[in-house]
């Protein structure tokens, strides 16, 4: 799939994994982020970040360490709390489907978190409810089997009957080639397998948005490919994804939009093909050059 | 050495252990763990006052002798009109004591669970309480088994102090028999010591087995 197809309906393919409400709203804004600021002590990590995530699109955040890209990602599901700025989320799928209002927004209206005011627990949960996250260090639960990891959220939080959650988890594990590992403990898996289980755990929550925080950075080089392949497949199916990554090849192949962050601001944004070929900012050029030619 | 006496005394002393020492230990330890978890959470609380209460509790328990704590509960509280029987007094004092020591163990164990585990819990939609219960505490439990076992084994021996507040446990049984046989005190107390040793050795074996079981999901 070429990036320009991102907002069009794909061919039949395995797209039926997407929920109909998400599919129908393809191309519409899911999250709109305005003017995020965040300070850790003296460190002003975010200095006014704007970002729009459209349904069905893949957004890649790249930049040197300390640029604020992970903090932006974590802000999108309330793991990081910005000091100022807003995040507006379109009405959730559940809301659309059943007319159930979010705790903090009556049905039909978007949810807005204004970080210059106090964010309530309900608001944070309502925002988090839309997404699922895949971590750099997979963060699987070591005391739970693969299957138990995957069904934990659906069964405990979403009250999905255990049999149904198990059936769905098995199906998802099959898709990433790990069905026979369902009763293994995380430490018995390779790094790439652990990360694929991490992705399945996220998918099992039926999120509207998938967040990836450098999902391949902690892996041995020969295991990176299997994880990126799964992510590419998800992108092709039309999942909405925001990915913090150092994998430029992946970003080029999969992302619809790349944001280059440095010093807490978006230095440059645009189509990856264009940006990687002819960056407009000197800072972008330097960064890309160093990533592509580390020995120079 | 009067071996005949030793043989006759064995069962009464052992039964003091089985009906006194062991139930006293089990009940006090169970209640103590609940107190410990509660105090550990106080100490981990972002609320300064709650954290201070937890810290003060641990400081008082660890900074005063267990024997004094026992005497305060059993002989001291009646001055305030609070009269508690020997058994409940012992349970109260030992539970509070275990609570203070184990709180530090539980707190350290909770802190040893990586931050990412909390975050993973949050991102699958769980709140703090549920993440603590389902994700963090099971992992903390594994870390805290060895130090908690030490606390438990110490408690087995510490319950002999309950003999001073009229609880009929193993050591008090030995004392009662010794009172009628003043020339065989050494033998009888060695016998009591031997029975404590057997209890503790069995517990240490149980500890290893438990650690092995809890280690099954950890890479070696």
Relevant terms:
heterodimer, A: 296 residues, alpha/beta, 6-stranded mixed beta sheet, 4-stranded antiparallel beta sheet, 11 helices, 10 strands, 36% helix, globular, disordered N terminus, B: 220 residues, mainly alpha, MetI-like fold, flat
Model description:
- The complex is a heterodimer of chains A (296) and B (220).
- Chain A is α/β, with parallel strands linked by helices and 296 residues long.
- Chain A has eleven helices and ten strands.
- In chain A, the strands form two sheets. Chain A has a six-stranded mixed sheet, sandwiched between helices.
- In chain A, 47% of the residues are buried.
- Chain B has 220 residues and is mainly alpha-helical.
- Chain B has one domain (3-215): Orthogonal Bundle (MetI-like fold), CATH 1.10.3720.
- Chain B is built from eight helices and no strands.
- In chain B, helix 1 runs antiparallel to helix 2 (48-62) and helix 4 crosses helix 6.
- The longest helix of chain B has 42 residues, at 3-44.
- The N and C termini of chain B lie far apart (51 Å).
- The model of chain B has no long low-confidence stretch (mean pLDDT 92).
- Classes of the chains: A alpha/beta (296), B mainly alpha (220).
- The A-B interface holds A 77-79, 121, 125, 128-129, 131-133, 135, 137, 139-144, 152-153, 156-158, 185-187, 201-202, 205 and B 114, 116-117, 119-120, 122-127, 130, 134-135, 138-139, 142, 216-219.
Distance between the termini of chain B: 51 Å
Q: Helix and strand string of chain B, N-terminal first?
A: HHHHHHHH
Tell me, briefly, the overall form of chain B: flat
By oligomeric state, this entry counts as: heterodimer
Please work out how many helical segments of chain B DSSP would assign. Answer: 8
Q: What's the CATH H-level superfamily name of chain B?
A: MetI-like
- The helical percent of chain B reads over 70%
Q: Main β-sheet of chain B, in a few words?
A: none
The computed structural class of chain A is alpha/beta
Outline type of chain A: globular
Structural class based on helices, strands and sheet pairing of chain B: mainly alpha
**Biggest sheet of chain A: strands, sense, closure?**
6 strands, mixed
| Adjacency order of strands in the biggest sheet of chain A | 6-7-8-3-9-10
Extended strand count of chain B: 0
Q: Classify the beta-strand content of chain B into a percent band.
A: under 5%
Instruction: Report helical residue fraction of chain A.
Output: 25-40%
> In angstroms, what is the radius of gyration of chain A?
19 Å
CATH architecture assignment name of chain B: Orthogonal Bundle
Mean pLDDT of chain B: 92
């Amino acid at each position: 799939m070429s990036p320009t197809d991102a907002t069009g309906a794909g061919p039949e393919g395995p797209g039926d994994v997407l929920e109909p409400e998400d599919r129908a709203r393809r191309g519409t804004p899911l999250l709109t982020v305005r003017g995020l600021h965040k300070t850790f002590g003296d460190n002003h990590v975010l200095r006014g970040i704007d970002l729009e995530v459209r349904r069905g699109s893949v957004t890649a955040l790249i930049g040197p360490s300390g640029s604020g890209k992970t903090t932006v990602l974590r802000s999108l599901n309330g793991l990081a709390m910005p000091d100022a700025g807003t995040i507006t989320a379109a009405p959730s799928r559940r809301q659309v489907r059943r007319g159930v209002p979010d705790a903090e927004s009556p049905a039909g209206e978007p949810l807005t978190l204004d970080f210059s005011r106090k964010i309530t627990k309900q608001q944070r949960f309502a925002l988090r409810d839309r997404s699922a996250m895949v971590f750099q260090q997979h963060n699987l639960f070591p005391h739970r089997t693969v299957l138990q990891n995957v069904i934990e959220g659906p069964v405990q939080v979403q009250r999905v009957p255990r049999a149904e959650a198990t059936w769905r988890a098995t199906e998802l594990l099959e898709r990433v080639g790990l069905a026979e590992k369902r009763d293994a403990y995380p430490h018995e898996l390779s790094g790439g397998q652990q990360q694929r289980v991490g992705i399945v755990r996220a998918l099992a929550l039926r999120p509207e948005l998938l967040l990836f925080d450098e999902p391949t950075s902690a892996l041995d080089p020969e295991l990176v490919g299997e994880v990126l392949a799964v992510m590419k497949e998800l992108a092709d199916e039309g999942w909405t994804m925001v990915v913090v990554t150092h994998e430029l090849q992946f970003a080029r192949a999969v992302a619809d939009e790349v944001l280059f962050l440095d010093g807490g601001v978006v230095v440059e944004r645009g189509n990856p093909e264009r940006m990687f070929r002819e960056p407009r900012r000197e800072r972008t050029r330097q960064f890309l050059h160093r990533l592509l030619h580390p020995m120079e | 050495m009067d071996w005949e006496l030793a043989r006759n005394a064995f069962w009464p002393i052992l039964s003091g252990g089985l009906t006194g020492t062991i139930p006293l230990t089990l009940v006090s330890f169970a209640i103590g763990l609940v107190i410990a978890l509660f105090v550990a959470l106080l100490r981990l609380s972002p609320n300064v006052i709650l954290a201070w209460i937890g810290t003060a509790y641990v400081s008082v328990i660890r900074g005063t002798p267990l024997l004094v704590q026992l005497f305060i509960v059993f002989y001291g509280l009646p001055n305030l009109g609070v009269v508690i029987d020997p058994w409940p007094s012992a349970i109260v004092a030992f539970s509070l004591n275990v609570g203070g020591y184990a709180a530090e163990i539980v707190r350290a164990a909770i802190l040893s669970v990586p931050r990412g585990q909390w975050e993973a819990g949050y991102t699958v939609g769980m709140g703090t309480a549920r993440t603590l219960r389902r994700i963090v505490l099971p992992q903390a439990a594994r870390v805290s088994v060895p130090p908690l076992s030490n606390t438990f084994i110490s408690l087995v021996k510490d319950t002999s102090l309950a003999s001073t507040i009229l609880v009929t446990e193993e050591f008090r049984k030995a004392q009662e028999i010794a009172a009628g046989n003043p020339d065989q005190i050494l033998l009888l107390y060695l016998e009591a010591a031997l029975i404590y040793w057997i209890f503790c050795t069995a517990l240490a074996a149980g500890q290893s087995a438990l650690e092995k079981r809890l280690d099954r999901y950890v890479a070696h």
